[in-house]
What does this fold into?
Amino acid sequence: MPIEDKKKLLRETARKCINNAKLYKRRYKKLKFIDNIIDSFLSGSCACSMSLTILGITFPMLLIPSAVLSGVAFIVAQVQRQYNFKHKYHMDSITYTQLKELSREINVILRKNHLSDNDLIDIIEDINNKISLIEDTAIII
It folds into this structure.
């Protein structure tokens, strides 16, 4: 394989890394938004439940909405724990960062002059190993 084809392969790999990084970043933002909404709902429902419980001392009918709100908050918290959004968006953030760094590294390598055929083969093997390590730890999109 000629040197220009190897450089073209590296450019293509860098482009794929950038595209995959965009996908992971988009999913990271989405999962983080969902998790923040759930956290806000849980905080608000716990505050309302506490207020209704305190007011329930004077007005016993307010203990029923307090209990319902506590039950809903418990169910939502269990759903959040089951889906583990924090871990998923944290892993997506790591994968996004690793792919962006790899694409930068490839672009730096492509700007070097006087790379021999053996140098390019070693670089391609190294990049393939890095991509496989990133894909092993990433959550599949």
In short: The radius of gyration is 25 Å. The chain has a mean pLDDT of 94. The first helix runs from residue 3 to 55.
